[in-house]
Amino acid sequence: MSQSTTVTAAMLAIGDELLSGRTKDKNIGHLADLLTLSGIDLKEVRIVADEEDVIVEALNALRSRYDYVFTSGGIGPTHDDITADSVAKAFGLPCVYDPAAMTLLAEMYKRREMEFTEARQRMARMPQGATHIPNPVSTAPGFIVENVYVMAGVPQVFQAMVDNVLPMLRTGAKMLSRAIPCPYGEGDIGTLLAAIQKAHPDTSIGSYPKYDGQRFSTELIVRARETEPLYAAATAVEAMIVELTARKTATNPSPDA
Amino acid sequence: MSQSTTVTAAMLAIGDELLSGRTKDKNIGHLADLLTLSGIDLKEVRIVADEEDVIVEALNALRSRYDYVFTSGGIGPTHDDITADSVAKAFGLPCVYDPAAMTLLAEMYKRREMEFTEARQRMARMPQGATHIPNPVSTAPGFIVENVYVMAGVPQVFQAMVDNVLPMLRTGAKMLSRAIPCPYGEGDIGTLLAAIQKAHPDTSIGSYPKYDGQRFSTELIVRARETEPLYAAATAVEAMIVELTARKTATNPSPDA
Questions:
Q1: Fewest C-beta in 10 Å: which of A14, A163, B60, B184?
Q2: pLDDT for A216-248, tens place per residue?
Q3: Residue ranges of the domains in chain B?
Q4: Residue B29, min C-alpha distance to chain A (Å)
Q5: How many CB pairs under 8 A join A and B?
């Protein structure tokens, strides 16, 4: 596959609550699903605390390495929402009250006859010159600086922002995949599967063990960016399962065989 | 609080399937819960692909920075299970078929009248001199090298290994916490809450917005390592909610008031 068809991404989930266990993250899996469908390879995820130095360091590591970085969390109106300041610091930009965001929010609170408090004004802060990510749920926008997309942590808002962001992105060749359920554990198939992987270098064959409390089985996933190698490898995997089943039947014939 | 009462940890979840969205991770939240209960601060989580260089780099970054590193995934018998080799490389150790693990596995497969295949033997591989983490579910042990604890990705096995590991760990002063439900959104409370946080520097006050599809409310979490500052800050937060409610009632009196 050519280098140019690959688009890479990382996610940075920000929030003490994810690390204390109080909140179980729902955004990582959601973004992973949508990026895979879009032909963007999510290569790394980090979860960090609400600490500026830590956020800045992680962001700088990720944004230099991947085509896109998506963040979640820390853009609300309270004192522990420090993502906008951290992103600004990472880019060496001033963090300002964005005039367009101030107008958007002021109008929304006016319509709702609510006070546009100092805390609420914090939600208009972003690195100078950032582009808005529209927020159809609760108005306060996310924002984009270069290849970094800053979104909310509340899942409904994160998901709405992701929906607005995806159409803007450059995407690569979609990764095609074929799932093949396998009734045998990894120990039964490991050697054969390694040989199949070696014979089909344009594919990536993943083996995901499952355990039902009694015995292991496996889900085998063949991935490729072209249909031909995908089908060739998948056929080899299916043949392996048939062969193993025949072998097991020969070794342990049923009583009436 | 004294430095010595803080014990820090990171988690490294390894596996392409977590990044493609095919598997939704359950181990991060589980470990986060148990570490918090034990008085160990989970400070960072990374999810990386099944790629040796990437695993080695992440592991070396995390093990030098935190007291403990816990990994999940990639220790099975198939070709995509490369965690043992990667951990060995990170420590500059040879990756060997551990004699005690070979014995354990050979006996288990003999008892079950199953062949101890070449693939299954891969599960005995670990960095030379590593200590086992017992696996009561499926025998193949996890392992420990210095401050790195290597465990399985299948949640039932991961959880059983964590149960075996936790009693070995040095723990810090437990973080105490008090959850206070707040019927107001972050925009209503942000300024007052920031003042309370400033007045109670020995606590960490987190604000977690909730959205029910109609309106925002907030869960406020006060955390501290000592009971006295915890109660003082929690009392101030409760007083803030009472005060806000009184103010709102005064502004919008009910018809019969």
A1: A163
A2: 899 999 999 999 999 999 999 999 999 999 988
A3: 3-168, 176-251
A4: 5
A5: 205
